[in-house]
Write a structure and sequence with these properties.
Elements lengths: L1 H31 L10 E3 L1 E3 L1 E17 L2 E4 L5 E6 L6 E2 L4 E5 L2 H36 L5 H33 L2 E3 L4 E3 L9 E2 L6 E4 L4 E8 L11 E5 L5 E10 L9 E8 L11 E17 L3 E4 L2 E10 L2 E15 L2 E6 L6 E3 L11 E4 L2
Length: about 375
């Protein structure tokens, strides 16, 4: 009994398959005899008309910040450091002593020069007395004119020698002043790499004094864009997230090209009242060359295949819409949109949803 039931079920299945196959053949034969083909339904998609917006033509460079009020402190004389009066990070005013270099040798030189001057003062006094005595004798007719002239020459030589020694003493005293290193301006003391007991020369870096305030940004622009450079171009400093933290306009354009890097130096002043920026810091600097009208498309409508950007556009053909894939050349992002440099023009109907199911030439139906 079970065998008969299974046999009967198998026969019914074969009959159903036969009927379906026959119906399929009949439908295909009808089409072959001139019947209308079955049209595929249009795929519903969301569209957005590409609009033209003003877009800044921006180029970003790696730039360097330099202080306009920063002094590198180096000694004027050679010697050994005997005292350090300040600490790194300390605020000082102009003339504040920073360090002391052992002045013993120079003090001895000043003392020797002063003693020589004292001796010369005595010589000058004696020459003056001799001249006055000879002048009296010459007036009485006791000595000759030649004797008078000789004493006058001795007096003049003594006076000249004293003036030379006065200059020498002053020079040695000025030199002694250099053994005390003072701040040339008000500011903040930087790192102090030397220690008490170190021997320093005129090429030794003692420390720096930086005055808080404005900085200067150094931007090196490739020579290819040099013809577009002009004073007053807007410039921005941005952080790692692209947020603008400072901005101004260019104030200097170098008339020469760096023969090593083939770049042109551009400078701009940067306000740094909140001390977010530091001297010698590398920053991201943007130069805004101008503003132009460009179409934008949503980021979600753009796909990237093999490094090339694409977007689907709904184009009307015979009263119906067909999806066409367009290669794009995109620029910067403005909010959630790409700036399109080439491939889409304002007014194009950009497909923004369902793009993952589309192929080029597929019928579509804009929703809404």
């Amino acid at each position: 009994m079970k065998f008969q039931t299974a046999f009967f079920s198998g026969e019914v299945s074969k009959l159903v398959i036969f009927v379906i196959t026959g119906l399929g053949l009949m439908a295909s034969s009808c089409v072959g005899k001139g019947g209308p083909p079955l049209a595929s339904p249009a795929f519903p998609v969301g569209i957005q008309v590409a609009r033209s917006v003003p877009v800044n033509d921006i180029t970003e460079y790696v730039a360097t910040l330099k202080s306009r009020d920063s002094a590198v402190i180096m000694p004027e004389v050679d010697g050994r450091v005997t005292q350090i009066h300040v600490r790194s990070g300390e605020r000082v005013s102009s003339g504040t002593p920073l360090m002391q270099i052992d002045p013993a040798k120079q003090q001895a030189a000043v003392k020797s020069q002063e003693d020589t001057r004292t001796a010369q003062v005595a010589n000058l006094k004696y020459a003056q007395q001799q001249y006055e005595r000879t002048s009296g004798l010459y007036a009485a007719g006791v000595v000759s004119k030649q004797d008078l002239d000789q004493t006058k020459m001795a007096l003049d030589a003594a006076q000249a020698q004293l003036r030379a020694l006065d200059a020498g003493v002053q020079q040695q005293q000025v030199q002694l002043h250099y053994y005390k290193v003072v701040a040339p301006m008000s500011g903040i003391v930087g790192d102090i790499p030397v220690r008490v007991g170190d021997r320093v020369t005129s090429s030794t870096l003692l420390t720096t004094v930086d005055k808080p305030g404005s900085l200067e940004v150094y931007i090196y622009v490739p020579v290819e864009r040099a013809p577009q450079l002009k004073l007053g171009l807007p410039m921005q400093i941005v952080d790692s997230a692209g947020k603008v933290i400072a901005e101004n306009r260019t104030t200097f354009i170098s008339p020469q090209v760096d023969d090593t890097t083939q770049t042109v130096l551009v400078k701009a002043l940067i306000a740094n009242s909140n001390d977010k920026l530091r001297t010698a810091q590398f920053v991201r600097a943007r130069i805004i060359w101008g503003t132009q009208q460009s179409p934008v498309v949503p980021v979600l409508a753009v796909s990237r295949i093999g490094g090339q950007y694409f977007a689907f556009v709904a184009e009307e053909q015979n009263g119906k819409f067909v999806a066409h894939q367009k290669p794009l050349r995109v620029g910067e992002m403005v909010g959630n949109d790409y700036v399109v440099l080439d491939g889409i023009k304002p007014g194009d109907k950009v497909i923004v949803s369902g793009t993952q199911f589309l192929v080029d030439g597929m019928p579509v139906m804009p929703k809404g």
